[in-house]
Amino acid sequence: MKKFVLCASLWIGLFLAACGDDSSVTSPSGKESLSTLTDSRDGQTYKTVVIGKQTWMAQNLNIETEKSFCFNDDSSNCTKYGRLYTWAAAMDSAGEWSSNGKGCGYKSECSAMSPVRGVCPNGWHLPTKAEFETLFSAVGGDSVAGKMLKSTSGWNFAKASGNGSDDYAFSALPVGYRDGGGDYTYVGNEATFWISTEKSDEYAYAMRLIYRNDNADVDYRPKFMAFSVRCVKD
Fold first, then answer.
1. How far is CA 60 from the centre of its chain?
2. Quick check: is 139 in a domain?
């Protein structure tokens, strides 16, 4: 009888410990949590999140580099949204931090071997097309990935709301982008993230979320445009 009471007490203790205070943010699956990383290059700290078997940055990259921009050339937007990068900048075409993406850019077809660190912190890399597809699968498929990955505020365009549920703490913000002419557009409407996978010498793939849609899609975009960057852990 004493052994039974002892076992029962141990089981209850373990149960209560499992249900105790936890500072991490969990997703519907109960396995995803938030942490942080500090970029040793400039000391900036970013939230990170585990989704499925991948660890993603939960904020947009904000390290300053050539061919990176703040929306509307306003530094406060870099603080809020992170920076926008051309594909060459995202790939670290200059080879400042790694050699894998060196020389990759507009009108320059390259055959970089994955993973490509690119502009990402050490130990992280620019995601491939396949890695974004894995992310979509982990949150329920591409037909609902937009809703799951978008932040719960800010997605408002033409007086219509398209906020996400942010169930997995990915917290994608609708920063918009910079086009090839230097114009900034679609803030509140769209979030687009560069992918290391190349389509041709003029196009590379990007992942896009739009305010009016619950889905997420991957398509190729001109390399000279400037989009956000989310890094994934090696």
1. 6
2. yes
